Amino acid sequence: MEQDSGSSVAAAVSAAAGTFLSLNEHEQRHYSALHAVCQADTSGKLSSPKVAELFKASQLPPEALHKVTEVCGAKRLGYFGTAQFYVALKLLAAAQSGLPIRLESVTANLPLPRFVGLQSEAEVRYPSVPAGGVEGQAAQSGTAPGFSWSTRTGALTDMWSPELWSPPRSPCTSPPRSPPSYRGYPYSRNGAEPHMVYDIHSSRPVVQMEPHSSPSNYSTKASVDLSSTAAVVRSGSCERLDHHGAGYPDDDPWRITEEQLQYYTNQFTSLQPDLGAFIIGGVAKDFFTKSKLPIPELSHIWELSDMDRDGALTFSEFCTAFHLIVARKNGYPLPESLPATLRMAFVQPVEDDPDTPENIELVEILQSQINPNASEEATKQADTSVRIAALFEPSPQLGTFPQRPEPPQELDPQMKMKTRPRSFSSTSIEDAMKKAEEPPTPPPRPQKSHSRASSLDLNKLFQQGALGAKSGWLPPPPALPPRPAPSQAPHFTTEKPPPNKVQQPNFADFSHFREEEERVEGQSARSRFGPSTEDLTAASKQDLLHSAPQKPARRKFHSEVSNMDLPPPAMSLAPPNKAPQKMLSKQKREIQMAIRKNKETNAVLKRLNSELQQQLKVVHQERVTLESQLELVRPLAST
Amino acid sequence: MAVCIAVIAKENYPLYIRSVPTQNELKFHYTVHTSLDVVEEKISAVGKSIGDQRELYLGLLYPTEDYKVYGYVTNSKVKFVIVVDSSNTSLRDNEIRSMFRKLHNSFTDVMCNPFHNPGDPIQSKTFDGIVSGMMVQTA
Hints:
Chain A has 639 residues and is an all-alpha fold. Chain A has helices at 6-16, 25-38, 48-57, 62-71, 74-77, 82-96, 121-125, 144-148, 192-202, 213-225, 230-242, 258-271, 281-289, 295-305, 315-329, 340-345, 348-351, 358-381, 386-392, 395-399, 406-417, 427-437, 448-451, 453-464, 484-495, 500-503, 507-523, 533-546, 551-564, 584-633; strands spanning 279-280, 312-313.
């Protein structure tokens, strides 16, 4: 469709561009000359640096140039084909003549565009003239730096660099200019009617269209809706056009930049003031419906972004969804599964570090996912106490990485299979993502605390028995074992052999518990010299909040200590016997108190045991009577 | 591996039905439709207690010479029907149950999507993906 020869180009252009573009002789000559100037390769695409140079030489303001590139269709295509180039030249001429940059303008009989400082014969022929006042669609401040982006190299496929958002920093809530970092989101639809005309023109395939026609409609619509924020569009198009060659990892369209993040945050807070809370589905639906994307697409976006499948959006999920919508409106086809960078951007808002190279993000995200996730799981398995729920509430913001193991694993294989042309996700990222998914999904650890039904009964019993008066007698799950407690354990071994009788019911758990104790012990070696047991509860509460990985171990430990009268696995703690002697007395005191507590536990357990035995006897008797009655009733049936 | 998977709404119209395309799809549609009678019969019989996982799974509805039909009903009377080829190495009951569980999970995900109106045909790509994973892969 695009040829290099001069005259045929014009023919091709007029043929391909439809009937609206007719070039007279001068124009044809001029344009083909310029075309030759800008020709970089033989594929028919023009080298965008040269095109950019040419545009700059036209001395039009950057936003006008961006509009030109957008209108001529090069933005959609990602490069300047011959037809786009010609249309663009016409538009430049129009702009320089003071006409608005619209497709209709090219039909007018225009003088040739003028370029300043262009090293070509075209320049020689045409004197430079300062650009006329261009009636840009909007006069955005700060767009001057926008054009400097053209010199930056970037992948051709980075159609929508996040850096676009940087110039228009105007506050996100100004209604008449729909927030600049937000293209085409018609919360403030500025007169869509007159712009509908563009759809008709722009949707006409100029040279080639993107594989689907709908995205082009969207992109044009987006550009059209953008009346007051066209600068972003233009800067985007300009940047994209001018970027050939070297890939720029930061230009990944699926990354959320700081500014976008800020905008999303504002929108989120407008819907839901608390950043840690959820936006429920209905509210989100209304909000996103305003974007005028078709419902199936919105539905798909929702599926992609609602990671934990709870029908509500956390802040991160909201950012993801918003980002996808904005991308869609800019003409990006929706991915089949969540892009890697967007999935990581999902944690990024928390990291608050969107510009670091992706690998570093990976590491951070892995760690952040593991830690809060471990803490989440640990807290979740705790009991049904309200405190756990309260603790859990703020954490979704941190690590709402899916708690269901299935979705991320499903997403990942889909990601490998997808055939999107953009190469933003490298295999290393995919692998890393797989690894990131694996750590959070191991089955939650401390479920064993519930596997013993007796412990739950004991909780109730103890609470009823008003034994809670004793300090340190907390309902086991929520309370953390005090930090010094592990230190007590080694002393238990030295001073008091474990009472075997009590261990028996809990033996299975102790063995598991041992490993965790060792871990806890290793970590809290210094914290032996902590407060006395009375303060342990306070400390334990803090521990719960502060140290994530240790939670399961501690909680269980405490449950062991207070309920089951435990000590013992202490023998496993024999290794870390490094208590300095000055603390011995303090620890002795603690040990003695622990002994007392254990004795009380013992007593309570004995009582419980006897009660249960009695109940068992009663039930037995009932059963026997029932059976005998049954036999009486059915003497023939029973054999 | 299923040959046909269908999701039928409470009012007994299909929300989603998908068959292995090589064979006559109409036949499967008919089979699913007739299996609805069996489903109704089963759920009316088990009317006493509510919502046990076991009771959600209805088991083999009826075998024919070519295939077997399994049913599963949710608490909201949405029915899942899986048609399996008899010539297949007979799938264990557990496998069928797990298939239904997966279906149920994806179905709830679709329902959670605020853009999906209950009663509309299911158009979710994720759901499609899961169903494809369960169906016989046609060469």
